[in-house]
Amino acid sequence: MSEQQLSLLRSLIQTRSFGNATLQFLESLLLSKDVTSSIEVRSSLTRLLRSESLSVIRSIAAKTLHEKLLVLEFFVRAFALVGDLQSCLALRYEGLVLREIKSASCQWLQVSPVEWLHFVEDAVHNGFHAVAEKACENALSCLANNDVQKTRSDADSENLKDVVSEITRLRNCAMASVASRSVQMQAVEYLKKKTKEPQRLDLLHKDKPCLASTSFRNGIKRQNMRKLYEEKKSPADQVMN
């Protein structure tokens, strides 16, 4: 991938060309037979997309809901192409939450139970348990407070129960994983602290020796110096003394 191609992609994003043509161009940049080159290309494209997506999302704050969702969808697909699952999931979640917020006035925006389930499954399976836990709580809250659920048929209600049950199970898995990781981190920090403590004690002993021990050693030194002085005195000095 040349600098010119990278600049062209940046230009397409900055001029708000959020269509299939831009995604196809992005996909063409990822084609490489060389593994090393492929990794470098994906890394460069990921950095560019992260930088540009932040700038674009800030700039559309005053845009319509439809425009915001189109931009989010574009970057979700772009991040999926370059393999940046974290950014992809983060923007998918933003899109779902945005739709739920606006669904009070536009019912067609409402996120279906299956959509929530698919998102949670993707988050859990890819190891983003904290995101999955948050999404589960949001999903269960939205499904419980949704008045539309009251008008469902018996078959639909049964399907909804299955979805809620699976989301609850995945939430518990995510919570257990987050808690386990927290315990592991605490254990690591504890071991690091314990490893450093003996070093600190050694330093303290070296820097601040016991005063009684020092006085005792100094007394022995003075006594030895006195004996040495007595042995070196001449016979005349001894007679005079």
Helix % is: over 70%
Give the number of helices: 10
Classification by helices and strands: mainly alpha
Percent strand equals: under 5%
SSE pattern, N- to C-terminal: HHHHHHHHHH
Q: What is the average per-residue confidence, as pLDDT, rounded to a whole number?
A: 79
Low-confidence stretches: none
The count of β-strands is 0
Query: What is the count of structural domains?
Result: 2
Q: Let me know the largest β-sheet.
A: none
Query: Termini distance?
Result: 100 Å
Rg calculated over all Cα atoms: 35 Å
Shape: extended
List the helices and strands and how they pair.
Blueprint: H1 3-14, H2 20-29, H3 35-59, H4 65-82, H5 85-102, H6 113-125, H7 129-144, H8 154-207, H9 211-232, H10 235-240
What features would you describe in this structure?
80% of the residues lie in helices and 0% in strands. It has helices at residues 3-14, 20-29, 35-59, 65-82, 85-102, 113-125, 129-144, 154-207, 211-232, 235-240. α1 packs parallel to α3 (35-59), α6 runs antiparallel to α7 (129-144) and α7 (129-144) runs antiparallel to α8. The chain folds into two domains: 1-103; 111-203. The chain is built from ten helices and no strands. The chain has 241 residues and is mainly α. It is extended.
